[in-house]
Amino acid sequence: SYARAADPDTPLELGPVALRPLLEQVLLGHYPEFEQRGWEPALTCADTVVEADAEALARIAENLVVNALRHGCGPLAVAAYPAGEKDRLAVEFANPVADPAAIDAERLFERFYQADASRSTQGSGLGLSVAAELAAAQGMALAARVEGSSLVITLTVKRLTCDYSSPESEALSA
What we know:
Helix content: 25-40%
Number of helices: 6
Radius of gyration: 16 Å
Oligomer: single chain
Largest sheet: 7 strands, mixed
Low-confidence stretches: 117-124, 165-174
Strand content: 25-35%
Mean pLDDT: 83
């Protein structure tokens, strides 16, 4: 619930979470909606273990997928790749939007921000602000940008292990 997410007295349990199966599960949970729209969601993610509260991370992914389904006008692509810092991973949720110019990426995570007034007010601003609060509570960062005709929301997480580099290069840096 929103209350749990916003309540500092409910500490999140951070531990190792396998990222790919979690993302797959969230995407599969919305398969009927993707199918209805004729969208084939894409997932690019190596076998990576991140530090997270599994339930909270699933909730963030859930909110980002629901947001993409609600406001996007084309298939969602989710991709995880190493971020600048050594132990960070960027997980991008990107999909085309009808009116990219109407989106104020800076304000996307405000509680009741709406990109356009014609949208139904029913819960329209809450998903992303909850996602941002859950991310912050786990030491993650959530950012948004408009790239061409797509809205790209990036979740930066701490990775514990990954298979992006070969064991040889791992041994050298140890």
